Amino acid sequence: MQHGQKVKVDLSQCEIRENNYSEERERYAADGLFATLGVAQDIQALNLLTNATRNVENVQVNQSVIIFHYDYGGGLERFVSPVLPFDRTTLLLKLGREKETTLYIDHNNTRRYYFDLEFLFE
User: Distance between CA atoms of 107 and 88, rounded to whole angstroms?
Assistant: First the structure.
């Protein structure tokens, strides 16, 4: 960030791509609250004996990325944000409030860059 080029990004000019899906997750995983109480294995064993799907729930996973095209060094470069845990609509609302952000690009390697997206998690 200190040594890279600062580029103002108009968020309304960015492309948003999403990938949403549902997956099964354990409700009482061995690393959660119940593990600290020492009852996780008992719950899992009881669930397995009574109903194998009782410890499983369907969870919706929302993921999106921001894609920004920029004329850098005489050629059009494509910059993609990290995967963000928002659906497209939620992300568009958050981006609409902020309007713009900064992209920091390493002068020596355009594959090294950083989107300033801290405002999304406030």
Answer: 31
Partners of residue 22 on adjacent β-strands: 60
Q: pLDDT tens, 19-49? A: 998 988 777 655 555 555 556 566 666 666 6
Q: What is the pTM of this model?
A: 0.73
The CA-CA-CA angle for residues 82, 76, 68, to 5°, reads 30
Report DSSP letters for the chain, one per residue: --SSEEEEEEGGGSEEEE--EEEEEESS-TTSHHHHHT-HHHHHHHHHHH-TTTTEEEEEE--EEEEEEEEETTEEEEEEPPPBSS-HHHHHHHHHHH-EEEEEE-SS-TT-EEE--GGGG-
What tens digit of pLDDT does each residue of 37-81 get?
556 566 666 666 666 556 678 889 999 999 999 998 788 999 999
